[in-house]
Amino acid sequence: MLNAPQFKYFLSHKKNPVQKNSQTWTTLLPMSRKQRPNDAGICVSHGDYFTAVRNFLEPGRSEIIIRAVSQHMHREVRSQEIEKINIFLEKHGEFYHPARIEIILHGTAIPFVLNVAISDAGKRYIQREYGLLKQLHEDFPFSFLPKVYGRGHVSIAGDDIDMFLGEWFQGYNEFHISFDPADEKHKIVVWDDDHGNYFLTDDQATNLYRQAAKILTGYYNVKTFDQILSWHHAAGDFVLKCQNNRIDLKLITVRHYRPLFENDRINKVPDEELILEALLVFFLNLTIRMRLDRMDGVGEIVWSDDIAVEGTLKGFFEALALKPPIVSIPDSLMDGFRNHLLSCSQSDLLGLSQAMVDAYTPQSPEIPVIKKNLKRHVITLFNLIKQKQKI
């Protein structure tokens, strides 16, 4: 092909190039971020991976990359303008092996993400997630989720590998609870490969939880009870950008979007009582899930400190204030839910929280940690609600 772009391959960073004659090129990919041996007989090498990604991206074979670059540039881009494509294998997730793609155009690097599914489970997720990301961009006026540009599959080494190209949030990084030896406390550390890892202050951590709760509540459908499910801090689903001590958060994946629990009244027009009860369940589940992480992203499951509760409460009500009016609720949704929440006793909140946790998947490794901390969590939440009655 004339004017074909040059392809280069890296492990996460330009300081880790991968050559076709290197040992890495022939080494098999691990099937998870914990570097487990390959599962279910899947044998895909790094070289197979990079070759498949290249085949998916080559301008002469795919219109997806041209369409994505054109949308980014707000003009029609010709394939001949693409000078170079850098492929960075970022990490090994439970379902995807995402790559950061740099398209070099007239000397300027334009970043994208390419989610790559190799396992059977990953292939099931990737088809659903692509559709959900498109749907949520159409249904909500937010930009917290990545745009998507196209999906497809490539056959390599006897395997079909599924992929979709999406927006890369430049300058955003993964974060997790970690141990700060400076003051011997557990804090949130941001994994910044370019400038060095750093710990958040308490105010920044509170703001992080506020923004995460605002994002998840923003995408909650008050009438159908559909919500983003199966998100995890431990999986790095949220990413963070910090500039001048101000943080900004994005959510990079949507695995499920449906009600938390099945309801036999779900097909009927929900009345005020049902809307407020479903919203209470969403809220309580949000406050619990927000506190869970894995130490340094891969260690034991850990429970955050109480600032997560304050941040979650703030973010939830900020998003609720943006919801359109509901015909079946005389007051505003925020006022109606505030009054409903204030009418609940501490034992009401604990009983509902315990019933909700009992309905979680019993094999979930988070269950023992949640049950150990649930009573104290509800006490903290209840006291904070009473302190902030004019939220």
Descriptive keywords:
alpha+beta; 2 domains; six-stranded mixed beta sheet
Explain briefly what this protein structure is:
With 391 residues, the protein is α+β, with helices and mostly antiparallel strands.
Describe the structure.
The chain has ten helices and 15 strands. The chain has helices at 23-26, 46-57, 64-73, 120-139, 202-218, 272-289, 307-320, 333-342, 346-358, 367-387; strands at residues 6-11, 82-89, 99-105, 108-117, 148-156, 159-167, 175-180, 185-190, 198-199, 227-229, 238-243, 246-251, 256-258, 292-294, 301-303. The termini are far apart. With 391 residues, it is α+β, with helices and mostly antiparallel strands. The relative contact order is 0.09. It has two domains: 6-167, 2-Layer Sandwich (Phosphorylase Kinase, domain 1), CATH 3.30.200.20; 175-387, no CATH class. A hairpin with a 2-residue loop joins strand 11 and strand 12 (246-251). 36% of the residues lie in helices and 22% in strands.
Average pLDDT taken over every residue = 91
The whole-angstrom Rg is: 23 Å
Helix content: 25-40%
* Strand order, largest beta sheet: 1-2-3-4-6-5
Strand content: 15-25%
Return the structural class: alpha+beta
Largest pleated sheet: 6 strands, mixed
Number of helical elements: 10
Tally of domains? 2
Shape assignment: globular
| Strand/helix succession | EHHHEEEHEEEEEHEEEEHEEHHHH
**How many runs of DSSP E, i.e. beta strands?**
15
Which runs of at least 5 residues are low in confidence (pLDDT < 50)? Answer: none
Distance between the termini: 62 Å
